[in-house]
Amino acid sequence: MTGGSLVRIRAMVRKETWHILRDWQTLAIVLAMPVAMMFLYGYALTLDITDARIVIEDPLPSTQTRHLAGSLDATTLFKVAAVVRSAGDPAQTLKHFEAKALVKFPPGFGRDMRDGGSAARVQVLIDGADQNVGNILMHAIQPAIRNGALELLNITPPEPVEVHSRVLYNPQQKTSLFFVPGLMALLLTLLSALLTALAITREKEFGTMEQLLVSPVRPVEVLVGKIAPYVVISAAMAVLVLGTGWLFFDVRVQGSLLFLAGACLLYLTTTLALGLLFSTVAKTQQQALLLALPATMMPTVVLSGFIFPVSSFPVWLQAISHIIPAYYFIQVLRGIMLKGVGPLELWPQLTCLTAMGVFFLAVATKRFRTRL
Amino acid sequence: MIDIALIIRKEFRQIKADPVMIRLMVAPALVQLFVIGYALTTEVRHVPFAVVDRSATPQSVSLAESFKTGDLFDFAGYVQSESDLRDLLDRGTVRMGMVIPPDFAAALESDMKASVQLVVDGVDANSSQVASGFAQGIISRWSFAHLKERLRSRGIDFESMVPVRVDVAVLYNPLLRSSWFMIPGLVVLLVTIVTALLTGMSLVREKERGTLEQLMVTPIRPIALLIGKMIPFAIIGLVQVSVFMVLATLWFDIPFRGSLLTLFTFTVIFMLSSLSIGILTSTIARTTQQTMFLTFFVVLFFLLLSGLFIPVENMPTWVQTITFVNPVRFFITAVREMFLKGLGFADLWREAAIMGAIGVTMMGMALALFRRTSA
């Protein structure tokens, strides 16, 4: 690169910086979003269900039913919200008491249990609308009632196999640890793919791109000059997110910082190429936005494994996930930041990212040349 | 009244004349329904799973094999040592492993406490908690079955020892499908984004082109102008709810047990708030591009705090307090109760009242702010 080229690129960078500063609101929104999300979701989410409210229907209270209700209430999982004589419609009762399950003792329960002979029956109706809660309650209620009954008969419940859980990488199960890599990916995608696509189409829309191209500035210099400020902003923002995570949520990078920076740079190249590709297709900023927003933001949030587990998707949707750069980048980030692993473990993901970047860049430059 | 009708006619003509706006309304709606409808799952399935069996006895093999049934875990095989397991976890090849200690079988048969260790990839706190819950369930079921077997070999029948039979029935969603819970919530996403975005965009475009000032100097009052602008988008919102209902019930096979009238009434009450968001963003944003970013940002905020993705009960108390002023939260609760449980106004009046109160407040704020910034 000659000295003249550097001067021309610097002029382009200065011009683009002015554009960014003039529309600082857009930049502010794009930056505020991930940081706000981090503060909202940065706490530890408790998915352990405790004190699930249950309603007990007991038409003929007896020592036995009262004991079983008490032993259910004593568990950490269940909490007796109310004991009623007759429950009526389950949906309305559950809503009225904000409860998740209804335990129905028949009138003869106490007698049946005292006399032995035929087993006393109890019916449990579980609100299965939220399948996670329903699943847990469904499996827990039977042992809980059975243990209560054994207690009543002075039999120690048998000990099952003990399970020791060891949680790796994120022992306190903090959501922030999971969220920070996803937010980094979202932020870098928005900044690089979306904003660069908008910046280039703006020149096209106003007709200034042609003016730039007939000027002594060469096409490559125009592109480099326009993209450079966004690379700088992206890098600054990556540092900001890491810093916020570290200062406020104690998220530490387990692996090598240098490798992390390299991975971010690789991802930036891929998404910048994608943004360039969008800009060769769209004629106006609005078109670019309509093209780039569903193609970047939605997949990065929904399909990349950022929030929803990809392994639970139907196969065709998993296939779509596999062509989204963020899917690989998030795995790389989590590997470096949480697991502390390096290129040795992450080479498959890095290879996919590189291949995608080369592909996007090839198509984008080809289209960019032919269009000019 | 005539003023409002005139504005409504003008709005509809403008919508028809602008194909980009139509694409904006139709494309995201369809993409959202199809992609998010499948992706939006809280179900944890096919967790890759490996076992370190240092006991290598019929008992330990039987326990390990019990993870092969069902689709909760994908059994990836046995590995030699714990460091091999760690390596698989590091690479992300498996997300959970079970270590069975050498004394497992001996402890099991001698009334001592047998134990196993689960090693969990905790990166995704949500999935890993659900998955380890499933694993513990599988282990405890296996150990209970094993215990019964042992008692039977000693001539004791466990079932007759416990004189209680528990019949468990799951209501409303008997197959415990995640989609039955998540997809009804999507209607809220749809209505919020479309009504807020379209209202905001249409107002800002008038501002950008300078036609808003022209409208302001006509005898039409600002209130009439806003009402005339909002009604077409409210109608579009209701049409979208209808399309959504057809897709949800016919394509995704979700039962709708409530009444359509209740659903539409709730939608109208809710749109007081979502339309207000549109007006409020239009008073802040200067360009359509800014409106789009701002609306997405605000809507995302409302959705994150609504219980659509993560149940409100699982949030810390101070965040739960914030959700009380979030209309989306109450709309989602109402829609879910309507869909699966068929509840009506008699049981959902509290949600309707809170949503109405929030809606009226937001609308008042929006009107006041609009008049101050534009008139």
Q: Helix segment count of chain A?
A: 14
Helix content of chain B: 55-70%
Largest sheet of chain A: 4 strands, mixed
> What is the distance, rounded to the nearest whole angstrom, between the alpha carbons of the first and last residues of chain A?
22 Å
Bulk shape of chain B: elongated
Number of helices of chain B: 15
Give the strand order, joined by hyphens, for the main sheet of chain B.
Answer: 2-1-3-4
Task: Describe the protein in words.
The complex is a heterodimer of chains A (372) and B (375). With 372 residues, chain A is an alpha/beta fold. Chain A is built from 14 helices and five strands. A four-stranded mixed beta sheet of chain A has the order 2-1-3-4, sandwiched between helices. In chain B, helix 3 (58-65) links the parallel strand 1 and strand 2 (73-78). In chain B, helix 8 runs antiparallel to helix 12 (288-304), helix 8 crosses helix 14 (327-341) and helix 11 packs parallel to helix 15. The mean pLDDT of chain B is 85. Chain B is an alpha/beta fold. In chain B, strands 2-1-3-4 form a four-stranded mixed beta sheet, with helices on both faces. Chain B is elongated, with a radius of gyration of 28 Å. Chain B contains 15 helices and five strands. At the A-B interface, helix 2, helix 4, strand 4, helix 6 and strand 5 of A face helix 2, helix 4, strand 4, helix 6 and strand 5 of B. Strand 5 (162-168) of chain A pairs parallel with strand 4 (115-121) of chain B.
